[in-house]
Amino acid sequence: MSTLKQVAAEAEVSVSTASAALRGMDIVRPDTIRKVEAAARRVGYRVNLSARALRNGRTGIFTAIVPDLGTAFYARFANSLSNALLAHGHRLVIQTSQYDAELELDLIRRANASVCDGLFVCPTASNGDAVRQAAGDQPVILFDGEDSGDTASLDRIETPNQSGMDAVIRHLAEDCGRTRIGIVGASDRSTPAAKGTRLRLSRCDYALRTMRSLGLNVEHAPVVSDWGVEAGIATARRLVADELAYDALCCMNDELAFGVLRGLAECGIRVPEDVAVTGFDGIPGCTYVTPTLTTVAVDADGMAQAAVSMMERRVGIGGAGLTGDGTVAADAASGNGTASRGNSSRRSRAGSRTEADPRNTIASQRLIAGFRLIVRESTAGRA
Amino acid sequence: MSTLKQVAAEAEVSVSTASAALRGMDIVRPDTIRKVEAAARRVGYRVNLSARALRNGRTGIFTAIVPDLGTAFYARFANSLSNALLAHGHRLVIQTSQYDAELELDLIRRANASVCDGLFVCPTASNGDAVRQAAGDQPVILFDGEDSGDTASLDRIETPNQSGMDAVIRHLAEDCGRTRIGIVGASDRSTPAAKGTRLRLSRCDYALRTMRSLGLNVEHAPVVSDWGVEAGIATARRLVADELAYDALCCMNDELAFGVLRGLAECGIRVPEDVAVTGFDGIPGCTYVTPTLTTVAVDADGMAQAAVSMMERRVGIGGAGLTGDGTVAADAASGNGTASRGNSSRRSRAGSRTEADPRNTIASQRLIAGFRLIVRESTAGRA
DNA sequence: CTGAAAGCGCTTACAG
DNA sequence: CTGAAAGCGCTTACAG
């Protein structure tokens, strides 16, 4: 790899000029910029990000921590986030916590010490405070994080649990005329660290709330061990053995619903004739299970883009310092001017975090993602 | 974040000693090590990887380029790779090429200039040469890459296409007594850059080879547009419209098979009574589609672990230089001693890649992953 | 066994 | 508008 020094020599300018020119700073004369760019191309120059990071305190690399990539929702979300960041000239390191709260906090702590400008965290069992503390001075965007006291400087994005559940329940009650709706996804408190515990409670609560507001009978929701396919299968079998007191089963996520569909099919129960089934998330499988699954399709791309905006606001980048590696980076440079100015004035030197850091003084934002209720065979029957 | 200098001051030793102590080098007296470690803990020290990378030329960060994380096989593989690297004290940046050959090469080139010690690439349409060239001096492990001329210093890992297809075809023919087997997954050459083109050709060829060896009639395989669910649905409909000349449909991957199952169900064709269906990969959906899918379950974890071994061999790390950030790193230190020695002697200074770099002189390796044929309802019927 | 010094490649005040 | 110099935090010969 060639260095900036070589580019400068090739272009017959100083290293400082070469540096400024490649980053397109407007104090450099246009023809000097062209000269330097040509030289960079000739010697095949690529900026060394380690050096830049050491100087800058910035790397353009962010870290996402998701419980698992084997779960379709998280895989798709990580995909969206990765692409959204890439479009802004940044990169994403994806790591998995395997639903282990300790591992999760450890990953966050390590990211903090590592080459990373900020964190995107889908917490499994840790609350906002614990995440905030582990993250140290790194900005964090939290997804579906449990609410807690001191959350200044913790931005949040949530899946539309309340409005989504409301839409599904209304669909089952009003469009499909179901009256005995079972909520599949509750868990007793004895398995607090199991997959999806947090979400589980929240989504179930919202579903029950809408049912009550519609005057529906709220029976005990079937308890499940986790939100996976196996748990869904087991639940369906158990319900059938109990003479299936429901005419609709509203599942807290798609995988659980897949399992329920499987389990019901094995018992010879017809969907949706005997019982309607719904999911939540909108993962690809919904279109090819039999019957196809009515679900709340969460706008993962929108979530990802919002997350990137929040992060850029907090990191305070217009992109200027992070691009300029010879390739065009129009996108990244189009950030807001204020943030960009704030950037350079904020700290004169890497590591000097003595002055108040706006990362922690900006008010925190909160956003709820959009969704679409997609009606398919599992509630509407075959076309 | 505190620096090594502060640790040294706290421990009342020099910076060099602190550095050596934290990496557990055996030239440091044991009690000095303890003293430094205690100091590091007190000031909450974490090594700055940018600085280390600048000095070392190593970051402990690797990059994986997969076509897509929305595809279950790649998501699972990325997951496995990420975990396998983590267990060795490294980290993985996952990026997606979206089946775009240009983007793919661009990502590889960028990774080369960035904070990255090596690349894991699942190529979409680029051949080994193009990947090798884009990667520059970075080590690359290629997955299911097309064979090409100059592949020195390109290690490869392949899914067990030949033995896997052989096992499926034999299962259909010998265990299930099927004689009219259709291979779903061929494509005409007119869509060369479409999803999975490369694999498609190879797997189909192997399937047909086994069929011929068994004396089966090899008819024209149904051409599909890609390897997705939609293509599978369309194929099934087309075949049924053509009076379904097959008693088995051997699909080149699971998603295609899911689509075929869907399409057949919509047409009222029974699986496996009228026609047996098989997939390839072993993604989670196989267990919950109806009927459950017989498939070749590729050992993704094994692939990932082998990939990490190959990479470590090529990068020449025993882990010593990359760990020692205060946390215990037993795993990482247990690499092979030879590589570890080669490491320090290889280059005295970062960036001085003048001497012959073993990265490019080590003979390339090739490995074929393991698999298990898992028989389910789609060929065996319900239990 | 320990310490002082050089230098990885870059960016940014600071002088011209 | 351009250049010389300092320094980000670390590791590694090299002297003691």
Description of the structure:
The structure is a homodimer of 383-residue chains. Chain A is 45% helix and 12% strand. Chain A is an alpha/beta fold and 383 residues long. Chain A has three domains: 4-46, no CATH class; 55-159 and 300-368, Response regulator (Rossmann fold), CATH 3.40.50; 161-280, Rossmann fold (3-Layer(aba) Sandwich), CATH 3.40.50. Chain A has a six-stranded parallel beta sheet, with helices on both faces. The first copy, chain A, has a three-stranded parallel beta sheet with strand order 6-7-8. A two-stranded antiparallel ribbon of chain A has the order 9-11. In chain A, β1, α5 and β2 form a beta-alpha-beta unit. In chain A, α5 (72-87) packs across α12 and α10 (229-241) crosses α11. The longest helix of chain A has 17 residues, at 197-213. Chain A is elongated. The termini of chain A are far apart. The interface between A and B is large, with 56 and 56 residues. The structure holds a DNA duplex (16 and 16 nucleotides).
Query: Could you name the ranges of chain A where pLDDT drops below 50 across 5 or more consecutive residues?
Result: 189-197, 318-359
Instruction: Specify the oligomeric state.
Output: homodimer
How many DSSP helices of chain A? 16
Radius of gyration based on Cα positions of chain A: 25 Å
What's the CATH H-level superfamily name of the largest domain in chain A? Answer: Response regulator
- State the domain count of chain A: 3
Along the chain, the helix and strand elements of chain A come as HHHHEHEHEHEEHEHHEHEEHHHHEEH
Largest interface: A-B, 56 and 56 residues
Helix content of chain A: 40-55%
Helix/strand class of chain A: alpha/beta
Distance between the termini of chain A: 60 Å
CATH class of the largest domain in chain A: Alpha Beta
Largest β-sheet summary of chain A? 6 strands, parallel
The CATH topology assignment of the largest domain in chain A is: Rossmann fold
